[in-house]
Amino acid sequence: MGATNEKRRVTVSRVKTLATLLFGCLVAAPALGQINYTTYHYDNLRSGQNPHETTLTPAVVNVSSFGKLFSQPVDGQVYGAPLVVSNVHIPGKGAHNVVYVATENDSVFAFDANSNTGIDAAPLWQVSFIDAAKGITTIPSTDVGPTIAIEPQIGITSTMVINTANSTLYVVSATKENGTYYQRLHALNLTTGAEQLGGPVVITATVNGSGADSKNGTITFDPLHSNQRAALLLLNGVIYIAWSSHGLERVDPYHGWVMGYDANTLAQTAAFCVTPDGDQGGIWQSGNGPAADPQGNIYFMVGNGTFDADKGRNDFGMSMVKLAPSSGLKVADYFTPFDAAILTQKDWDLGSGGNLMLPYQNGATEPNLAVGAGKDGNIYLVNRQNMGHFNVKNNSQIVQEIRRAFDGHSLYSSPAFWQGNLYFWGVYDTLRVFQVTKGLIGTTPIATSSYSMASPGATPVVTSNGAENGIVWAVDTSKSLTGPAVLHALDANNATELYNSTQAGTRDTAGYAVHFTIPTVVNGRVYLGTATELDVYGLLP
Q1: For 97-118, what is the mean pLDDT?
Q2: Could you write out the DSSP letters of every residue in 374-418?
Q3: DSSP 318
């Protein structure tokens, strides 16, 4: 704390350099001006911002100039965000900008990112992890119990992750094979879809514990009841995978899990159970993945479940948790709201949304911060270096709590951050823009949209050209499986609507919505996964 200004500049510089190495997920590709989108919400901070968009600006994103360009059919619902890599050399087909999508029918598709005509009409490649003739199918939703989360089949749910350094796409599949259930980590070649690195590997794990479904002091990973909803995380050469339950956190027994797998060998590096001596504690986050700070620590938010860490035990339900990979996924720190037990009783998951790591906050007393919100509608701002643990009376131990930040509305999504602003879109609520100044969040929004979005709200993303031409993109998925998704674009400075996909009649109509999906906006295109197709939007010819 007594560092000189010069020392502070050096420290910040080193942090920024490390951050570039750790979070180079949104980076310039070999093709001039092209950007790769390789992980959920653009980076491992889960910031939701793409500051390299030069084509899509507020001046041209309107119903006259912007709209749906084409779509590509797929064989199942697309829950994960599409990923994009530029200048991929496909054998026999030349170089392409490629968009990758996965479906609940256990398929992965690689499409040309810019066209669906001529030789680009068909997928560049497609792989399937099922084979009915051999008794290998997706998991019927009815097998997991009274779920209404994903139906009628469960295959690939989470957002994949790409490692361009070894040309690999990582994806987790779920299958039923002659009555036995499996989840596997696949490592697919970006150019062909072929399995590589010795994959796939069957996902298994055991930890010591006396909690629900334990046997002889051991908790074993359950591939049927564990829902791999949270996006994958690639950090320092390791793939991190997180799990919750199916349904509305009511398919018991279950436990939240985090596991690490070496990105080059697919060997398991560590396994962590959220509630080894209790139950529940799912890591759902509406599809957002675990986040990471520039020092390589992992953060996530947990739903309903047993919490007894304040008593020296090992259960972290309803908490924001920090894991240290360097110590084998041990809990390094945590924050739990004082009313966690009540939140669990009311099914008010803290982990209905994911957390976001704010960049270093100049001028702040506590400059390294994590922010998140959940079903209780409170925003929690936590010091990553001292998260505060548990206070039985209130939450005064954390940097800031904004109670009823969304006027009583819940949050089933994650925020985005751009130019000092936080963007939240709650359930049956407007987009709310909060300003962050010197490490504190303004308690009153500086801007709101003119309309609300029904359940589940939306996880926004922001594109810009540096500090200019900011656009907030969000998808209305309230008509999940019953009507089309609706793409929205708003001015990032004042939340004024620029465009939505209903304005041109049927011209821009998307496929049927899938809850909690987010748009991928990169290189002048918007990619949207739906129940039946991949839709691509951009400037009209």
Answers
A1: 97
A2: -TT--EEEEETTB--EE-SS-STTSSEEETTTTTT----S--EEE
A3: T
Q: What residue spans define the domains of the chain?
A: 5-539
pLDDT at 253: 85
Please tell me the predicted confidence (pLDDT) of residue 1.
Answer: 35
The one-character DSSP state at 454 is: -
Question: How many residues belong to the chain?
Answer: 541
Determine the Cα–Cα distance for residues 422 and 434; give it in Å rounded to an integer.
Answer: 5
Q: Report the Cα–Cα distance between both ends of the chain, in Å, rounded.
A: 56
pLDDT given for residue 248 in this prediction? 55
Q: Residue 277 corresponds to which tokens in the numbers above?
A: 């001596």
For 325-390, give the DSSP string. GGGTSEEEEEEE-TTHHHHHHTT--GGGS--EEPPP-TT-SS--EEEEE-TT--EEEEETTB--EE
What are the phi and psi torsion angles at 14 (to 5°)? -65, -40
Q: How many helices (H) and strands (E) does the chain have?
A: 2, 43
Q: What is the pLDDT of residues 346-388, one digit of tens each?
A: 999 999 999 999 999 999 999 999 999 999 999 999 999 999 9
Residue range 26-56, pLDDT digits in tens: 666 555 579 999 999 999 999 999 999 999 9
Q: Among 444, 502, 461, which Cα is nearest to 478's? A: 502
CA distances from 121 to 94, 124, 153 (A): 15, 9, 27
pLDDT confidence of 157, banded at 50, 70, 90? very high
The H or E element that residue 263 is part of is none
Q: Assign domain 5-539 one CATH number from 1.20.1560.10, 3.40.50.460, 3.40.190.150, 2.140.10.10.
A: 2.140.10.10
- For residues 460 and 483, give the distance between their C-alpha atoms in angstroms, rounded to a whole number: 20
Residues 228-252: b if buried by 16+ CB within 10 A, e if exposed:
bbbbbbbbeebbbbbbbbbbebebe
